[in-house]
# Entry
Amino acid sequence: MLPVHIQRNKFDPVPELARLRLEQPISPVSTPWGLTGWLATRYDDVREVLSDTARFSNAPGRRNPRFADLPARNGFLLTYDPPDHTTLRRMLTPEFTVRRMNRLRPRIEALVTDHLDAMARSGPPADLVSDFALPIPSLVICELLGVPYADREQFQRLTGTRLDMSLTPDDRAQATIEAREYMAGLVARQRADPGDDMIGMLIREHGDEIDDFELTGVADLLLIAGHETTSNMLGLGTLLLLRHPEQAAEVRTGENVAEAIEELLRYLSIVHMIVPRTAREDVVLSGQRIAAGEVVICSLAAANRDPAFGEDLDSFDIRRKISAHMAFGHGIHHCLGAPLARMEMTIAFPALLRRFPDLRLAVPFEDVPFRSYTFVFGLESMPVTW
Ligand code: HEM
# Structure
């Protein structure tokens, strides 16, 4: 049985999660992959845990001796604590400024147009996931990282295999090894001749502070963190908008697009499982004592619908003026790619709805295959017609 925080009832967290938030906001949890700890479901508790790096650590070695030998600076920023986190995040942040993102904008617009053209050319039906929601974020990451055009197909195939939960763990592990090897090669080439993209910039500006192992880890994290998340938001977000035609109409005309994206992020809260935090000392949260060394798992989906955070949060309403949802996390690990993800969605949703004003499901809603399990919630496929 899956733990309650990664079960899902189509768009919604399961009702049990709301019951826990009300009756036992810090509750014992154990996962099929052997992690036991405490599940935090209230907005205030989640925010407190994510804000407080003095009392909660992200380092995997603290919660599992299996990871104790992992080099601390492996590039996986999410598992860093300060001061290493501060150092690496400072190097990466300039790559995600609005100015840098604006440089990517024309490329993203062109990618979106190209994929819509291809869908129009092939005619209905289409699979919105494989024809639109998956390839766009994947190609955007290629732009960002500087993956040469000639390699993109191979690179996308490897990424697809890594993320495909219907394949065996061995197949996925093999694709991960190959993708890491590819990335290590890319880093080595950039070291010899740094390009204008992100890895090239990091080498030019911080080449003596960051080694190739760490750089390969950074590239790998960006690929994984930026790919599946945005693509699942595009797929699920489109489906949710189609279920609310009057709200989709506003997005189509360009009204309330920014608000719609924040509400889609909050309502869907697709990241089921963020990095578990380990208490560095004894802590009390909502009256429950958590001993030093114990793990806290924060449910962003439960927190983002907590009545203490706002009114009627189980309904989807793009006119809601929300601020401070935690779909991108909170605190020092708040999503580095948030400006990029927001820009991709801001371009993609209105363009899709405008190109196909009559877009609709090609199968009954009940037959749309939602993913049964992954760390990030999404759709397997989404047959559409117009
Ligand atoms: C961190 C969500 C897109 C890169 C996070 C966290 C969340 C999140 C919840 C915090 C996890 C934690 O605290 O354990 C999302 C969602 C996205 C998205 C919902 C899409 C809608 C992206 C993109 C990129 C990216 C496009 C990069 C290309 C990262 C990185 C971190 C992160 C590097 C770690 C930051 C740190 O540890 O300081 N994201 N993300 N994400 N995300 Fe995203």
User: Anything to note?
Assistant: The chain has 15 helices and twelve strands.
